[in-house]
Automatic annotation (TrEMBL):
Keywords: CBS domain. Residues 1-62 form the CBS domain. SUPFAM superfamilies: CBS-domain pair, Nucleotide-diphospho-sugar transferases. This is CBS domain-containing protein. It comes from Ohtaekwangia koreensis.
Amino acid sequence: MFVDFREYVIDDKSNARQALQKLDALSSKDSRTLFIINEEGKLLGTVTDGDIRRGLLSGREISENVNLYMNRKFKFLREDQINAEEVKLYKGLKIHLLPVLDSKERIVKLIDLKQVQAIVPISALIMAGGRGERLRPLTDATPKPMLKVGDKPIIEHNIDRLIKYGVEDFYISIKYLGKNIQDYFGDGKSKGVNIKYIEEDEPLGTIGAFRLAPQIRHEHILVMNSDILTTLDFEDFYKHFLAINADMCVASVPYSVNIPYGVLELSDDLHVTSLKEKPTYVYYSNAGIYLLRSKLRDLIPAEGMYNATDLMDDLIRSKRKVVNFPILNYWLDIGNQQDFLKAQMDIKHLEL
């Protein structure tokens, strides 16, 4: 998703011939666009083969400065003002590489819009410290998050899907055989993201490690279990969270219960008020995926076990807003042998 922009930049003292040579070196790439910068690194414009061709046809010389050929009306994002709707607009315009600029107009990264579903400005905490008792003996030598579903570990499916939604800051909470996970992902640079690890000396529950996450860059953070397979649309999840102005949004799985008999509806004094024939009731089960305000970290106790359900209870008691987001896409919690086998079959048909 994030591209090494150094091979796509050229300084403003170069001529058109040099620009063409550099563009030719990009012939194996999906995009043949150069970003022209000055000596301070400020982005001045862009140039493509087509720009140079049109300039030559209008009478310019190939030895002339590349600035004479460049497009000054380029699209870009501000590092501190990334907007999901703006990204969607640029995808619709078929823009391939989109520069992200800092306050001094310097490129800090290039986003490959062909590789992203959206840009969701959040950090992510993935809980990966569990023992996986119900999956033994598979987890005797391999931590549950590293069990392969298809051609890669469960946790990697989740990381790669989040990357498609523009997430680049990851925290992974580890305990049981955690070094296996660290050795596999390292600092995340191989995927173009940043990964930091939170080592649990003792089990901290399903969200207790959140209090140990350092330097959370974004206002909001996604917390999820590592042993989930899902096609959840994280952009829709995030937009729902913002629209309701929630403190915490809990993803859920709708679960229908069919009653094969007529059900009496009763008043407090046991009078029958109505009869429902073979009704279906829908309940919402916790999916192990949460969006919350990063500042809620301060509410988590400094020591001991603390679960996401504890945080929900505390927020509800203090009249904070906790909301539900039903997952209507695919979702599977790989908690036992049967579900693990199901995942091996399902992955053949999923687009994660």
